[in-house]
Each structure stands twice: as structure tokens, then as C-alpha cells.
Sequence to fold (450 residues):
Amino acid sequence: MTATADRPTLWSRAGALARQAPPERNRYVDFLRAFSILAVVVGHWLVAAPYMEDGAVRGGHLLGIVPWTRWLTWGFQVMPIFFLVGGFSNYVSWSANRRNGGSYAEWFTGRLQRLVNPVLPLFLIWTLFALFGTAVGVDREIVRLAAQLALIPVWFLAVYLTVAAVVPLTHAAWKRFGLGSFWMLVAGAIAIDVAALAFHVPYVNFLNFAFVWLAVHQLGYAWSEGRFARPGIALRWGIGGLAALGLLVGFGPYPVAMIGVPGEPLSNSMPPTVALLALGIAQTGVALALEPAARRMLDSLRLWTGVVLINGMIMTIYLWHLTAFVGVMVAAWLLGGVGLHVVPGTGEWWLARPLWFALYIAALLPLILLFARFERPSTSVIARENTPIPHWRLIAGLLLISAGLAASAVFSIASPLGVTGVRLWIVAMPFLGAALVRFGPVYKLRRRIG
Fold:
């Protein structure tokens, strides 16, 4: 038998891991994590709708072109589910860390590494693209738009890392106040929206990145403690959240779309609003009402293996799916705009979506094969150093990483000015932050014996 035949496939490796999962593991948590990220990918591929007009490529946005599609965001805007799952997972891991006498630095360093390491290659590749694109004379506006579109997914990591950083505080608040800690955050989110929308206080609405996502994260704590164990209770939360969302959209100032729409004066996601929080409550209730049936379904080894496979490359899929999209669009443009002359939202455009999705997937697969390794710890024999990272370095590293990720999504790493065509200060921040918390030196290599 050849070495190639002996090499395990991705499916066989996922199957081996699936069989090793302890019986007490809540497989539905992993299912929801995979489902939420895949829904975001599909949503992005649908919403971005470039087309050719008068010989030029127009950056179409489906929600702006076809207004009825804004209702679809109530299903495709599933970032609340990811924060719900994060709350569940962080509750379990932080509780175990405390029981085992672990330090905050050790716990959070592990979180940072798993989430940031896959981002660094993405930053590096797009920095090189911006550098060489500028050097060979590609229009700087095209370079900027391509880089900004490809790096949009990283904004989420900036917020999630910050939410994870304060887990000791939110966990303590949960232990003391229970669901009261959730309702206090809801009250804070409402107060922020009132200040921003009724009294026009500038920039205060950005505080809802904390209030809204921390509130959903607290619901993950409630889930982990069995507060939604009865489907009837979960369903009541879902109906209540949906009713609140309907009232906010129907009689309040909030738009139907749960993501930003070009030309709209108010976005429900950037920054998040109380309407998005109501959607998060509704999605939490519906998702957890389905948990008993879903967990029985996940007893199937084949389905569970698929969930394990997706979760093993979930960050790579999320981070690189828009790079794959940009690659397909560039190829279509270079081929004379093939397929881009169809007006978005028409019947012909919808019928073509399966073919375009197949192309996006084909472009994404090699990126997954190349970069999924950064989600996994090194296969070298390694051991952690005993010296914990000082908290000040951990916090400074977090701030640099989060600022760099947020700035790349907002401004783009590509610059319309300067010799390099790159905003080097944006690119540098995540790498400096990663170096500050010593992602490399925190591990000490040992010689393999035998």
C-alpha cells in the first residue's frame, strides 16, 4: 500500500475525533457554531452582488437593490447565535479553569491564540496583494475595495476577543445576579439607543458593541446552567424576542434589515441596536427550543462527524470566504465580465446563484487546505512555560490586535496615498499584539525521544 493510501483523509480524521468525544459533550453547541458561521458565509455570498454596467464593475448590494430581501436578514444575521455559543463554551472552560487552579493569563492566552493565529496569514496575504498591486499599477481604488471586502470578517473577532477578555467579570456577575446580569445589560443597551437616537449623543451608540453582545453572551451562561432545558421556556423567550423585534421595527426607528444597507441612515449591526438584541433573544429561544430534537439527531455518527469536520476548519472558512469571492469576481472580470452582466435580483440572477456558489466553494477549498493548519496547535512535542504572561502585556496585546482588526474592516489596509499603498500601521498592530503576548515563545520545544 502506498504512503498516499495510508494517509488519513479529512473525513477519517474527523471521524476519529468524533468517536473520541465524551458522552457528556453537548454536540448541539458545536452544531450551532458550525451552522452560524456557514449561514454568515452564505449570507455574504448572496448580499454582495457586483455587476457590469457601461463597461465598469459596480459594487451592488442585494439589500439595496431588492428591498424585500431585507427580511431575509432575520434568518441570515446569526452572529447572536455565535455569541450565545461563545457564552456557553466560555462558561464551561472558565469554570473548569477555576476548579483546576488555572490562571486568567493561561486561560485567555489560549483563547487569543486559537482565534488570532488564523487571522495573521490572511493579513499577510492581503498586505502582499496591496503592495504588489500598487507596485504594478493596479488602480488603487480597486486594491482598496478588494482588500476591505476580503477583510470584513475580522471585525467580529475584535468584538469577540474583547467579550472573552472580560469573562471573569461577566461570570462573576452571573454567579451573583443570575439573569439579572442579562437584564442589566439589556437596560444599558436601551439607554444607549435612547441617548443616540432621541438625544443624538455622538458616538455613544458604539457602546452597544459591549452591551448587546455581552447580553447575548450572558444567555449562553443561562443555557449552560440549564435555564432553557425545557423547550416550552425556550420557546417563550423566542416568541417574546420576536414580538419585541416586530414592535421595534414596526413602530420604532429601526430598519427591517439586521445588517447595514448602503444609503440607509441607521444600521442595526454597525453598531448593534436593541433591535438586533431582540433578534438575538428570538434566535436563542427558537434554537434552544429545538435542542432536544437536534441532540437526538446528532447521535448519528455520520452527521456528528460532519459537524466535527466543519468545526475543525471553521475559522478558516469564515476568514477566507470573501477572499474566495473576490478571486472569482476578479477572474470573471478578466474574462470580459462573464456572468456579471445580469442585473442582481432578477429571475436570471437567482437561477445563476447555484453555479456562482459552486465557483465560490471551488475557490475556497484550496484556501482551506492551505490555511486550516493555523487553527490547529503544532504537532511538535511542546510544553507550556511555567511563567505566566503579565496581565498588562495580555491586555496591551488584546488592544493592539482588536484595534488592528477593527481598523482593517473600517478603513482597509490598502491606502490611496503613499509609496507602498498599504496602511502599515494597521497591518502592524495585530502582529505586534500577537508578539506582545508571546504566541511563539509561550511554548518551549522539547526534543522528541524515540
